[in-house]
Amino acid sequence: MKVIVGLSGGVDSSVAALRLIEQGFEVEALFMKNWEEDDSGEHCTAKQDLSDAQKVADKLNIKLHTVNFSADYWEDVFEHFLKEHKKGRTPNPDVLCNKSIKFKAFLDYALNLGADKIAMGHYARIKEINGAFQLKTGLDNDKDQSYFLHLLNQHQLSKSLFPLGEINKKEVRKIATDNGFVTANKKDSTGICFIGERNFSEFLATYLPKQQGNIVDENGQFIKHHQGLAFYTIGQRKGLEIGGGFGDSGAAWFVADKHIENNELLVVQGDHPLLYHASLNASNPHWIDNEPNFPLKCTAKIRYRQASQDCTIHLENGEIKVNFDQLQRAITPGQSIVFYSEDVCLGGAIIEDRQ
């Protein structure tokens, strides 16, 4: 069976390729560039990543293909990212990137190269039961990436492999070191998918105009001006720059809400009740297998690396209503809520509002 692995120039995909070879697959690799930028820029690592991917491919003696999906990324991921921020919401581009780029554009390209399946260095697992494919959490709880993969469908899962799903990051680093990979000690990539680490507000300001408004406390008292609701997210602490002289305590300030209608940012001090909600409404539900029966008791995550939270899902007029057993902190419109039954990812939806 021919498998084309997404070789990113990072340690995870390097070890994924090695494990596939050890398992007897015919392996080739594909490096994708998804963001057009001056390669000499401090935030653009594509040139170095390609060099590292080539070194790993040479060491493994496998062919490395390259492809540029920048236009697809802009149209299918980044434009949506900007539209959501313009509305004052906080989207998750990594989720959409997996659906539209890594497991669609990449998959189609790989299949045209003669691949039977593709493989990625994600920490997740796939299990087939009677012709149906389940997405399961990775065994490394600290690195499990099923949250970002919840929009995948049966076809995408049937054509995918996750060679790292059964091992943990420490093992991956050791395997890379033992095999002399140049990526063995390379720092994990963070930040926006394919755009990298940078000052988020400065980056966003190059695409969205600043719209000054008021930052107010829970009593409506003016504190200072903000530069635009797009530049803040619910639960945010850093970057508010609210110094002494406000409030009755020295506790930190957090974003509790965005009042879109009057361009107002509501902030509170400390672990405030306004940061907590018992339920939420979500739209565009996607189920990896068949739609479940409702009401459904399961667990959910409203952000990556959150511990799964007990909840009950109701379906009302095509929209998802989620009631949590315990209050949830900083539920954020635009983010994904992802549902689980034990270690099986059922699917997810987009958070619209919270109560």
Model description:
With 355 residues, the protein is α/β, with parallel strands linked by helices. The protein folds into three domains: 2-178, HUPs (Rossmann fold, 3-Layer(aba) Sandwich); 209-271, SH3 type barrels; 276-354, Translation factors (Elongation Factor Tu (Ef-tu), domain 3), CATH 2.40.30.10. 24% of the residues lie in helices and 31% in strands. The protein contains seven helices and 17 strands. It has helices spanning 11-22, 46-60, 70-86, 93-112, 154-158, 169-178, 200-205; strands spanning 2-6, 26-33, 64-68, 117-119, 124-129, 132-137, 160-161, 213-216, 222-226, 253-259, 264-269, 276-287, 296-301, 309-316, 319-329, 336-341, 344-354. A six-stranded antiparallel β-barrel has the order 12-15-14-13-16-17. Strands 3-2-1-4-7 form a five-stranded parallel β-sheet, sandwiched between helices. Residues 143-145, 303-304 are annotated as: Interaction with tRNA.
Summarize the model shown.
The protein has 355 residues and is α/β, with parallel strands linked by helices.
- At the first level of CATH, what is the class of the largest domain? Alpha Beta
Q: What string, H for helix and E for strand, traces the elements in order? A: EHEHEHHEEEHEHHEEEEEEEEEE
Note the gap between the termini. Answer: 50 Å
Integer average pLDDT: 93
Percentage beta strand: 25-35%
Global structural class: alpha/beta
The Rg value, from CA coordinates, equals 22 Å
**CATH architecture grouping of the largest domain:** 3-Layer(aba) Sandwich
Regions with little confidence, pLDDT below 50 for 5+ residues: none
Number of β-strand runs: 17
Helical content stands at 10-25%
Number of domains: 3
| CATH fold name of the largest domain | Rossmann fold
What does the largest sheet look like? 6 strands, antiparallel, barrel
Order of the strands making up the biggest sheet: 12-15-14-13-16-17
What would you call the shape? Answer: globular
How many H/I helical runs?
A: 7
State the CATH superfamily name of the largest domain: HUPs
